[in-house]
Amino acid sequence: MSYEYVKTIPSPKEIMEILPISEEIRNTKKERDQIIKKIFTNEDDRFLLIIGPCSADREDAVCDYVNRIKGIQEKVKDKIVIVPRVYTNKPRTTGEGYKGMVHQPNPSKGSNMYQGILAMRHMHIRVIRESGLTCADEMLYPENYAYLEDLLSYVAIGARSVENQQHRLTVSGIDVPAGMKNPTGGDMSIMLNAIKAAQLKHTMIYRNWEVKTSGNPLTHAIMRGSVNQYGQSIPNYHYEDIVRLMEQYGQRDLKNPTIIIDTNHSNSNKQPKQQPRIGMEVIKNRSLNSSIKRYVKGLMIESYIVEGRQEVGGGVYGKSITDACLSWEQTERMIYEMADKL
Questions:
Q1: Contacts of 221 (CB under 8 A, 6+ apart)
Q2: What is the per-residue pLDDT across 73-104, written as a single tens digit (0 to 9) for each?
Q3: Domain extent at residue 141
Q4: Residue 54 in domain
Q5: Angstrom distance (rounded) from CA 254 to CA 247
């Protein structure tokens, strides 16, 4: 074999003993989980906003951003529930580039998976402690979820992972909402099959154990646009796209049918400044059709402190080193405008 075995990674239990959480954080997560769950079960008609940097590359800037979001959340709490994006695992289309804090706790240095696991857990704990907001992260590596399971209130499965059996079955054993993105090719049936699989009970191998899962009834769809055979972006956030997905949802026996619209990626053709316009169109369509309002429960948006993106080592505080994001000023204005229209 051509693997070089570097070091044994501690178990989730060992990492949690190194970085434990307080009773206050445990209670905060419990309360937040219930609030967010009720949006998916139609017990709370507030709008969900999953928002934050494309990648959480440095703890100080991410905590700064989330503490700013906390101030907005208090002002719009009657209409919007905000779940900050703190994404510590980043899929790379070609395998090149920054793969997230779990790989590189310092983006300018080489990989150190052990320090990366400590860094991502430390950051999530600090975010909750300082802001009182529990967060979303992407499940790029199913086994890594166990290092954050006592901290996250939302999990996203990316367009490249949604067909993977291990991701589907792992989601079936977690107890927070999990969004399945449509694949990059745009086939909605793949996403819906993933939702079905994750809502069922399974027996599987997980972290060297045979485990049984209970099924996750909060698994749902995220529409992120697609790419055709010529590499062109095809959006799927429009009225007609949502209606088609609702029809497909209706043909399947799925619990808590929900759609989240990702306003970036192929929906914006990676033009982040289009996100406010896309979000407002979605909100308008909810007002035009009561069924769309019932199904479409929120948006996923990429924003940070400074607009755009930079290369690793660029040195601009609060500016993305992966996909380009909205600025803080654009974000603040957008959220208030959305709250006015909801």
A1: 179, 180, 182, 191, 192, 195, 245, 249, 258, 259, 260
A2: 999 999 999 999 999 988 877 777 888 999 99
A3: 12-341
A4: yes
A5: 12
